Sequence to fold (309 residues):
Amino acid sequence: MLVRAVAGVAGVAFGFLISWAGLTDPDRIREMLLFEDWYLYPMFVSAVVVGFVGLRALRGSGFRAFVTRDLVTWTTARPRQRHVVGSVLFGTGWAVADACPGPVAAQLGYASLWSLCTAAGVVAGIVLYLRREEAKVARVTAPPLLAQGEA
Amino acid sequence: MNDFFLERPPWWIVGPGLGLIVVFVQATINRRLGVLGGFSAVVERSTGRRREFGWKAWFLLGVLLGGTLYGLLSGRLWLTEYGWLTRTFTGSEAWLVAPVLVGAGVLIGYGAKTAGGCTSGNGLAGCAAASPASLVATVTFFGTAIVGSFALRSLGAA
Fold:
């Protein structure tokens, strides 16, 4: 329960901040991607730097998470083809809609009506991905039907 | 209307603020935040793939309500314009905005899910965690979005 509340509070802060910063405004994002407005880049880098330093400080000091009481730690992943292929598809969608999932959610929150279409697409894209993954698993684990009988 | 909220804060407030939210989530529930994961959690719960919504769905709900809070404070609510799309497709072509945005959404959802995260999960939190996969993903989607925006402009996007 407390975990959900904390996640919700973090989400409100996140959604409010990106909205106030204009990061949910498709025109603003487009200007940034066309280098007419540089705001996005130092903003993004400073966010990553503060996050990086903060996370290292937590882990380095053996910090136990306030709510879950476990030692702060995380896993990292090595880059694979899917990270590149997926990000090319995602980046293309981002260029068209001038929004990524965070802004889409915040846009829904202040009733930017067209974002209903983007959100519906995101949901459909996720369903498509899940089905495709499940089909892959099914192919791998399915019993070989032709192995018995005539063969 | 409140003009204070119509003017964006400087980047050196917003950037570190977002970074601190990443740290806050790790320091409280020891998780890596991500908005796409929130959408996915809702999809997985509502299609019976999962029994619970999970914390990410609550994070997503928070982001949405954060947008509502901003809308109420700034007066930016009920918007019917949408960037270059509603400027480019007007009159009898206006309906085209819907399929274009749905298509873009599919690319965003399917692509980011394949890459293991979006601008928040891979870009902010994954890079803050110095995950090599997230760094590669972030450079890739930023690069693609930049190239895509220039391409769209050259194709006549208003």
The longest helix of chain A spans residues 115-141.
